[in-house]
């Protein structure tokens, strides 16, 4: 089984954690899953609704063909087999955010089955997470709880907004192949990159277009599976990791006390970082699944599946391999770049323009990423585009700028929006590489400091640094460091 | 001029309007007067939209004759299970009291487009669950042939309305016989189309895989015309296909070369002697105009009621879950918390039969019972479908009485749900197989109408209507109930 | 035959409430109906597939093109209780 090859697995005080994830991806189709209302974000409540997504009497669903295509893309990207015949089921339960009191979902004939995603870890090791199923369903509306804390417990009443209701969702369920919170985070990060690359979703955890719940159980290695709990309410990668850590700890405490773990829903509280079991009035849900009589089955023939497969972009795994092979990047750098389609596109354009993959990678993963992260921007929003950065790099390569100067110029490019050459000209920043000019400055500095010059002749090599500093002071840091070094060695000798 | 609407067909109305003898306003007013005159006793209407009807009629009258579409200005009434934008729609339930749909059902939009004048909404069994219209939360509709008797159900309001000439024609719905059986009880013509022929968008759902909208009319010619007005594939209904060919105007006078299978399981001991007698006279009539009738056995039909009373309630339990007091309809005052709100809203809002069926359906779908109940019923359905397929290899049509009895007395069967369910013995298998079926008046037994059911293969509406037309012409029954005598 | 506990359980699932008097009447009614429909279990239908769909259609799909929905006023027009354009429901917890 998979766990044998899971070399990054570890135990928690002797217990093996068995983790499976249930991920929901909100698709960025133009319209909802079963009606033609716009899919939007942030609109005034109940303004992007119709009788269908409000669950009025007499309405009927009609399937969005784009959602089927996008779900097929996800299934193929996850190496699933796409069902020849897939049908919708009704999942029946009562809740105010569910207008029909049933969710149209999929049950025993989902769109995709038996896939996998190979996950790379920071230490370079890899492990495979099985994908049990990929299926299509519709989203519920949004509930706001009116009361002191805004939390459901203790609220006086709640308000329902159905703008989000009916949005297409793809549910991805993994096999319980994950063994640590780190692995879970890595898996989700790379799943996100994969789906982002397909351009079928914004996959933004904070906005809710990517959601993740976890099933967690503990066992002694080699023993049968323990009782699992369902861990919810983790809306960032960090919270996923912390939530899992907290739940594993909670279960360990429980088991070490000799108690049994009770199958329950566990709620993660982001403010305190703790988990708590939700006490629910009713027993486990009986969803009374039955095939949705209002919707026809979907039969995707081979030519359709192949068309969708052919339309898939280069996936992160393949891109990573290509970046290593074609550009000689390290595996670590390649993984980071491949994880963000926009960033790797930027890198390739840059590398092509500069002709130097290594320096391009350093800039993209260094200064550019630093700036984007600090400003909270996506690479598509970068003020500095690849050709502009290529020009800057060119100025370093041809000696006009030192590496240090180039970083300052980059910052100025970001804030002013101007190109590198203009900034260098405006600020008179050109690196001094004129031999004659530097020669005379070096000689001046040596003459002005006879003591240290003597120390050097006595054998103190380190004093060169002092002279370099003095030259830099004279030239406001613009002297070409390599040339200065050479000139000093020549004249001090 | 004073128009006598008694016995007036929709075609006759159309001719009156076309000849300019009568305006749509006059015609509409005549029907409104008729409603005022008799509906106090018949109780077919839940809502009469006098203002809306006269407004629509006036708009038609304002148009130049050559600007008008063929059926423009002819009145019609609608079973209150169909969503009418801006007009209260209740399904004869308390849980939808005051509900005003923000949209039209597709069939309603089509009729509006065609220029028909809506007189109002008709009574029914609550959420179409019933065979007598006694399950309405608001009123009991009376059979115009004997006001102490039920009109049948669930489209009892529609059938009684047409029988008593309170509208020239009406729309009803049929899930297990709810158009055909009331048509039989009230001496009118009722057609359940092939499943998918007519869009269900805006039809408040009872059993999704069985519900169909269809015409209740005074004759086959009107039924064909109304069917053609409402049929068609609808992009808002994923299960709709429309008809393969229009029903057209039935003209057939003889039945030469046609073979009719007489379903033995539905014509023997299952039926009252009086009904069997009338049915036999219908068989004689068929043979007298060249049709060949032969007995045929459809053994699985005896399992139909059981299968239906698992499938329909199961789907209904899910379809009716949306009535939870959150977004529309009744909300209980006993609503301390959400759970209380749900249970009290639904318990106050639904009648006893609806609750019974929700309970049966919820049980049949619940964990551990799904395969033994719901899935087994759906397999039985497959059996029934195959039986019909077999039969239609040898016969053009299949016939039986529409119902095992004539209209029973009000209150006679309410206390025994199972006895009530067995009323649908003859009509249910047709619904389960998604086949088209018509009921036409075949005669009378002890003064009460008896219906003949003719069933055909999928999308044989044109053929069925023609066959029915030939029998109708041969029988030439007088179908105007003597209301003053029987209803006081 | 359906027990009283089962009736109460099913009622909870269906969000229906019956008082003692109603339960006393309901239990035999439901039992009678279930006993009747139970006859189907006598049939050997193992060779047959359940009919999940009344018509043999497949791939009935809609183009991803938006339409004009309801205004907030229309959406809220039947609301039993609403606040700030949203549907209000009593406390859930």
Beta strand count of chain B:
11
Strand order of the largest sheet of chain A: 3-7-8-11-1-12-13-14-15
**Sheet with the most strands, sense and barrel status of chain B:** 11 strands, mixed
Please identify the oligomeric state.
Answer: heterotrimer
Question: Element order, helices and strands of chain B?
Answer: HHEHEHEHEHEEHEHEHHHHEHHEEHH
Shape field of chain A: elongated
> Which shape of chain B, going by the Cα principal axes?
globular
Count the DSSP helices of chain B.
Answer: 16
Largest interface: B-C, 65 and 49 residues
Structurally, the number of domains of chain B stands at 2
Q: Which class do the helix and strand fractions of chain B yield?
A: alpha/beta
Helix content of chain A: 25-40%
Helix content estimate of chain B: 25-40%
Structure classification of chain A: alpha+beta
> Can you name the CATH architecture of the largest domain in chain B?
Alpha-Beta Complex
Mean pLDDT of chain B: 96
CATH class of the largest domain in chain B, named Alpha Beta
User: For the terminal residues of chain A, how far apart are their CA atoms?
Assistant: 69 Å
Output the radius of gyration of chain B: 21 Å
What does this structure look like?
The complex is a heterotrimer of chains A (493), B (488) and C (93). Chain A is of the alpha+beta class. Chain A has three domains: 307 residues, no CATH class; 114 residues, no CATH class; 58 residues, Arc Repressor Mutant, subunit A (Orthogonal Bundle). Chain A is built from 15 helices and 17 strands. The model of chain A has no long low-confidence stretch (mean pLDDT 92). The longest helix of chain B is centred in the last third of the chain and has 24 residues. In chain B, helix 2 runs antiparallel to helix 3, helix 7 packs antiparallel against helix 15 and helix 9 packs across helix 12. Chain B has an eleven-stranded mixed beta sheet, with helices on both faces. In chain B, helix 8 links the parallel strand 7 and strand 8. By secondary structure, chain B is an alpha/beta fold. Chain B is globular and about 65 Å long. Chain B folds into two domains: 275 residues, Alpha-Beta Complex (Amidase signature (AS) enzymes), CATH 3.90.1300; 73 residues, no CATH class. Chain C has a domain of 38 residues: Histone, subunit A (Orthogonal Bundle). Chain C has three helices and three strands. A two-stranded antiparallel sheet of chain C has the order 2-3. Chain C is flat. The model of chain C has no long low-confidence stretch (mean pLDDT 95). Classes of the chains: A alpha+beta (493), B alpha/beta (488), C alpha+beta (93). Chains in contact: A-B, A-C, B-C.
């Amino acid at each position: 089984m998979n766990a044998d090859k899971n070399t990054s697995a570890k135990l928690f005080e002797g217990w093996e954690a068995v983790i499976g994830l249930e991920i929901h991806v909100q698709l960025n189709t133009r319209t909802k899953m079963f009606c033609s209302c716009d899919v939007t974000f942030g609109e005034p409540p109940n303004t992007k609704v119709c009788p269908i997504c409000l669950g009025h009497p007499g309405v009927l669903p009609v399937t969005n063909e784009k959602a089927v295509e996008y779900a097929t893309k996800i299934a193929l990207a996850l190496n699933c087999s796409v069902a020849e015949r897939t049908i919708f089921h009704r999942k029946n339960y009562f809740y105010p955010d569910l207008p029909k009191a049933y969710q149209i979902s999929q049950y025993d004939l989902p769109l995709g089955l038996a896939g996998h995603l190979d996950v790379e870890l920071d230490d370079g090791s890899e492990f495979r997470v099985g994908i049990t199923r990929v299926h299509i369903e519709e989203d519920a509306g949004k509930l706001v709880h009116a009361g002191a804390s805004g939390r459901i417990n203790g609220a006086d009443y709640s308000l329902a907004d159905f703008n989000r209701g009916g949005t297409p969702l793809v549910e991805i369920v993994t096999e319980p192949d994950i063994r640590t919170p780190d692995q879970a985070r890595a898996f989700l990060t790379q799943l996100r990159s994969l789906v982002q690359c397909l351009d079928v979703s914004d996959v933004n955890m904070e906005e809710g277009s990517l959601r993740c719940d976890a099933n967690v159980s503990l066992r002694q290695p080699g023993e049968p599976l323990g009782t699992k709990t369902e861990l919810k309410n983790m809306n960032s990668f960090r919270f996923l990791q912390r939530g899992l850590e907290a739940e594993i700890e909670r279960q360990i405490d429980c088991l070490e006390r000799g108690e049994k773990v009770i199958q329950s829903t566990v709620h993660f509280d982001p403010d305190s970082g703790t988990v708590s079991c939700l006490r629910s009035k009713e027993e486990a849900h009986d969803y009374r699944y039955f095939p949705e009589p209002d919707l026809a089955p979907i039969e995707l023939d081979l030519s359709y599946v192949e068309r969708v497969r052919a339309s898939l972009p280069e996936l992160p795994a393949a891109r990573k391999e290509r970046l290593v092979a074609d550009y000689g990047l390290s595996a670590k750098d390649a993984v980071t770049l491949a994880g963000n389609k926009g960033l790797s596109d930027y890198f390739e354009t840059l590398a092509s323009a500069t002709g130097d993959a290594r320096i391009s990678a350093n800039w993209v993963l260094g200064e550019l990423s630093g700036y984007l992260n600090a400003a909270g921007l996506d690479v598509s929003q970068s003020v500095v585009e690849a050709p502009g950065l290529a020009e800057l790099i060119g100025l370093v390569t041809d000696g006009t700028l030192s590496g240090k100067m180039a970083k300052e110029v980059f910052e100025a490019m970001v804030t002013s929006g101007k190109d590198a050459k203009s900034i260098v000209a405006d600020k008179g920043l050109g690196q001094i590489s004129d031999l004659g000019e530097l020669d005379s400055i070096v000689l001046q500095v040596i003459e002005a400091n006879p003591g240290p010059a003597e120390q050097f002749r006595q054998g103190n090599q380190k004093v060169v640094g002092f002279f370099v500093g003095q030259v830099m002071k004279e030239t406001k840091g613009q002297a070409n460091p390599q040339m200065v070094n050479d000139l000093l060695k020549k004249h001090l000798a | 001029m004073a128009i006598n609407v008694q016995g007036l067909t929709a075609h006759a109305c159309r001719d009156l309007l076309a000849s300019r003898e009568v305006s749509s306003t006059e015609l509409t007013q005549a029907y409104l007067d008729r409603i005022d005159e008799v509906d106090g006793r018949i109780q077919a209407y839940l809502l009469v939209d006098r203002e809306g009807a006269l407004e629509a009629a006036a708009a038609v009258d304002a148009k130049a004759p050559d600007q008008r579409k063929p059926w423009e200005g002819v009145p019609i009434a609608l079973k209150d299970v169909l969503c009418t934008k801006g007009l209260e729609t209740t399904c004869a339930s308390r849980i939808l009291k005051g509900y005003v749909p923000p949209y039209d059902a597709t069939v309603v939009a089509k009729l509006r487009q065609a220029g028909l004048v809506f007189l109002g909404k008709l009574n029914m069994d609550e959420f179409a669950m019933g065979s007598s219209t006694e399950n309405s939360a608001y009123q009991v509709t009376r059979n115009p042939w004997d006001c102490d008797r039920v009109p049948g159900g669930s489209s009892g309001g529609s059938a009684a309305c047409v029988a008593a000439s309170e509208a020239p024609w009406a729309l009803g719905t049929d899930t297990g016989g709810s158009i055909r059986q009331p048509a039989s009880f009230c001496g009118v013509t009722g057609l359940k189309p092939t499943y998918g022929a007519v869009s269900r968008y805006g039809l408040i759902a009872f059993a999704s895989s069985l519900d169909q909208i269809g015409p209740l009319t005074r004759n086959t010619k009107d039924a064909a015309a109304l069917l053609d007005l409402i049929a068609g594939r609808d992009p808002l209904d994923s299960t709709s296909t429309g008809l393969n060919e229009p029903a057209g105007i039935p003209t057939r006078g003889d039945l030469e070369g046609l073979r009719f299978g007489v379903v033995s399981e539905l014509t023997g001991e299952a039926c009252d002697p009086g009904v069997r007698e009338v049915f036999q006279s219908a068989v004689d009539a068929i043979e007298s105009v060249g049709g060949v009738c032969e007995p045929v056995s459809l053994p699985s039909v005896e399992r139909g009621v059981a299968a239906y009373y698992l499938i329909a309630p199961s789907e209904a339990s899910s379809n009716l879950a949306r009535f939870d007091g959150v977004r529309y309809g009744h909300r209980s005052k006993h609503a301390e918390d959400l759970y209380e709100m749900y249970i009290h809203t639904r318990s106050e809002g639904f009648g006893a039969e609806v609750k019974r069926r929700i309970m049966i359906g919820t049980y049949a779908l619940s964990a551990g019972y799904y395969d033994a109940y719901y899935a087994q019923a759906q397999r039985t359905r497959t059996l029934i479908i195959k039986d019909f397929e077999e039969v239609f290899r040898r016969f053009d049509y299949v016939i039986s009485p529409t119902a095992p009895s004539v209209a029973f007395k009000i209150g006679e069967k309410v206390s025994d749900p199972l006895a009530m369910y067995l009323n649908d013995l003859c009509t249910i298998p047709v619904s389960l197989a998604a086949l088209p079926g018509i009921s036409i008046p075949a005669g009378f037994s002890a003064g009460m109408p008896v219906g003949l059911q003719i069933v055909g293969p999928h999308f044989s509406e044109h053929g069925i209507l023609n066959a029915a037309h030939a029998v109708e012409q041969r029988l030439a029954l007088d179908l105007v109930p003597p209301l003053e005598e029987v209803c006081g | 035959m359906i027990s009283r506990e089962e009736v109460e359980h099913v009622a909870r699932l269906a969000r229906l409430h019956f008082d003692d008097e109603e339960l006393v009447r309901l239990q035999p009614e439901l039992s009678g109906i279930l006993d009747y429909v139970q006859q189907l279990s006598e049939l050997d239908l193992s060779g047959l597939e359940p009919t999940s769909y009344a018509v043999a259609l497949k791939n009935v799909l809609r183009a991803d093109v938006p339409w004009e929905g309801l205004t907030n006023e229309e959406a809220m027009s039947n609301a039993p209780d609403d606040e700030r354009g949203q549907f209000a429901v009593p406390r859930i917890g």
